[in-house]
Amino acid sequence: METANKLKEIDMKMMGRRIRTQREAIHMTRNQLAAKLGVSGKFIADIEYGDKGMSIQTLYRMTQILNLSADYILAGEHAISDSGDPEIERVKENIMGPLSACSLEQLKCMEQIARYYVEGIVGGEE
């Protein structure tokens, strides 16, 4: 029974933000996404604003179109080990979302940039 208390709810607004961030990162309009899914542009807007959910079938098709995992769309990549601070989680998602459109080479470059940045901060605090 304790496990049930630890389960998290889906944050519809954050889910919508993740979808929108990726849609924009791949230069797709709401109407283009809607056409591929067989729904209206208004429905996509409602999902992105966190006002409506979607069926499992729509979610599955969206994962393929946006090249995102269902896990990421529903809860974000860091949902299991989150900090408990919604602002930190929002910032992490804003950083991670656009990176999903990058190539392997671009991701490796960003990895080095992040490593140098963090090492500079940690090294500066000592």
Automatic annotation (TrEMBL):
GO molecular function, one term: DNA binding
PROSITE patterns in UniProt: HTH_CROC1
Keyword annotations: DNA-binding
KW Cytoplasm (keyword) present: no
Signal peptide extent: none
InterPro entries: Cro/C1-type_HTH, Lambda_DNA-bd_dom_sf
Domain HTH cro/C1-type: 19-73
Pfam families assigned: HTH_3
Protein name from the UniProt record: Helix-turn-helix transcriptional regulator
Organism: Zhenpiania hominis
Lineage: Bacteria, Bacillati, Bacillota, Clostridia, Peptostreptococcales
